Amino acid sequence: MHILLPCPPTMAPSKIVQYLKGRSSRMIQDEFPELKKKYWGQHLWARGYFCSTVGSVNEETIRKYIASQEIDDIKNNFRVEE
């Protein structure tokens, strides 16, 4: 998953990731109760993450990269199956 988002310098990236993972996990489990049973007491998302600043690359380049990843995912016919 790739996300490009602005954040204030006073907010720790780890807190942002914690919020995104926690909130999205709850939303997914509410929509798919069978996952809640399957992953009870476990992590739905991987424990790790990678975070980087835009740095010397401009924002448009990053947006294009993220868009190209979505196209690659569609081409790979990603599916979740039991």
Distance between the termini: 21 Å
How many helical elements? 3
Order of helices and strands: HHH
* Biggest sheet layout: none
Structural class: mainly alpha
Estimated radius of gyration? 16 Å
pLDDT average, as an integer? 82
Shape: flat
**Number of domain modules:** 1
Which range does the strand content fall in?
under 5%
InterPro entries: Transposase_17, Transposase_17_sf
Protein name: Transposase IS200 like
Domain Transposase IS200-like: 1-69
GO molecular function: DNA binding; transposase activity
Keywords:
82 residues; mainly alpha; 3 helices
Commentary on this structure:
It comes from Paramaledivibacter caminithermalis (strain DSM 15212 / CIP 107654 / DViRD3). Residues 1-69 form the Transposase IS200-like domain. GO terms for molecular function: DNA binding; transposase activity. This is Transposase IS200 like. One of its GO terms (biological process) is DNA transposition. The chain has one domain. It is mainly alpha-helical. It contains 3 helices and no strands. The relative contact order is 0.11. The radius of gyration is 16 Å and the shape is flat. The model has no long low-confidence stretch (mean pLDDT 82).
